Amino acid sequence: MVANDHCKDIEAQKEAKGDMLLATLKRIQDKESERDSFEVQISAIDVTGIDDRERNLQIEVERRASQLAAKDFTATIRKKQGEVFTLEQEIKDLNYQRESMSADSHDRVVLSLKKAEMENHKKKHKRIVDEYKERIRVVLKGRMPPHKDLKNELVQVQSSLQKEYDNLDKKADEARNELTMLKIKIEEVNHNLSKFHKDMESRKRFVESKLLSLDKNSGGVDSYLQTLEVAKDKRDVQKSKYNIADGIRQTFDPFEKVARAHHICPCCERQFSANEEDDFVKSKE
């Protein structure tokens, strides 16, 4: 069984090698056919013409080399370098212009944003002014200036109000200081008044004790004060009567002197008798 399998393997190997040999022989034949074809093509080429062309090309190369050697490349190089430098400057200028344009573009964008923001602020400002228009009129006493002058007007009013407030605050401080001083004085007066009342009470008790020692029926200082007030009223009445009588006497005294001196009536200058003169003088008394 094993020998049979081994034989089969050997047969298979032989067949494979035979196939490979056939393929190799076929490739050799193909290469030989290709070689024959190339030989036919080469035999058809004009080798003499190729040599002539090669010779002509060599002559042309030498001629061009001599022409290149005869040219002044230094001046050309300098010229080209100048052109390159000019081009570099132009490139730099163009780059600068491009950057400037880019910056201007950015500035235009920023300016556009700022403009939009300013418009929003203007709308907001107008809305605020419209909202507080009546208050502004009250502050500016009925006036409503243009928007461009409104800020200056309000600043001036605020400055004047601030000055007025500062003055009032200063006066308020002075008033508070005066009030503090008055409170201190009031406390001092109250203290002195309390001390005075205590002193008066002490003196009153002393006087009452003295009065009681002098008059057992004394009702105290208050009763004496009432008696003193009654006596003062009577004195004032008598003084008033005296003043009236003295005024009448001073009024009619010149008439009496005229009547006694000239024995006539001071009013109508009629002659008095002795009895009439006495009666006239007595009536004035």
Automatic annotation (TrEMBL):
Keywords: Coiled coil. GO terms for biological process: chromosome organization involved in meiotic cell cycle; double-strand break repair; telomere maintenance via recombination; telomere maintenance via telomerase. One of its GO terms (molecular function) is double-stranded telomeric DNA binding. Residues 115-192 form a coiled coil. GO terms for cellular component: condensed nuclear chromosome; Mre11 complex. It comes from the Eukaryota. This is Zinc-hook domain-containing protein. It comes from Dorcoceras hygrometricum.
